[in-house]
Amino acid sequence: MNSQIPSIKALPRVKSRLRYVLIILLVEKIVQHIFVTVCFTYNFFGVRSTVAVDYHYLLYSGAVVVVLFAIALWSVIKNIRWGLNLVMGLVVFDIVSEFVAMGTVLITINVSFIVAIVLLVLCYWYQRSLRFKPQPDN
């Protein structure tokens, strides 16, 4: 009757695509935080002088965030539901830490910030798709 409404059978395909994109973006966040933590450790590119707070706070929090993003990646791969909440919490922490590190509300929008926003939106969409319970066709 209504050919514009997608089939219920298409929902698992959409969920799996969202999941794969989430996995790719989580890997990117892990690599990014490892790189930034190493840069703070060895002061590559003079990165210590570019932040508004003591770099030790960012160094240690970055190391913890790498481990937590790795746990979140594992949970998304294993389809563990609490993993999405962990991802969203880490992404919000990542967004707030961008402002804290720069010491101002007017920050430069970089790839890390954009990926964090996209990751937050995708997690929300993925959680919503998991709540959807399709009715069997009669």
What does this structure look like?
Helix content is 70%, strand content 0%. The N terminus is likely disordered. The chain is elongated, with a radius of gyration of 18 Å. With 138 residues, it is mostly helical. The protein has one domain.
Structural class: mainly alpha
- Ranges where pLDDT stays below 50 over 5 or more residues in a row are 1-11
Shape: elongated
How many domains make up the 3D coordinates? 1
Report the total helices: 4
Mean pLDDT, all residues: 83
CA-atom Rg in angstroms: 18 Å
Strand content: under 5%
The count of DSSP E runs of length 2 or more, i.e. the number of strands, is 0
Order of helices and strands: HHHH
Biggest sheet layout: none
What's the multimeric state? single chain
N- to C-terminal distance:
15 Å
Percentage of residues assigned to helices: over 70%
Q: Secondary structure elements and their pairing?
A:
Layout: H1 11-42, H2 55-77, H3 82-102, H4 111-131
Supply database-style keywords:
138 residues; mainly alpha; 4 helices; disordered N terminus
Give a brief rundown of this model:
The chain is mainly alpha-helical. It has helices spanning 11-42, 55-77, 82-102, 111-131.
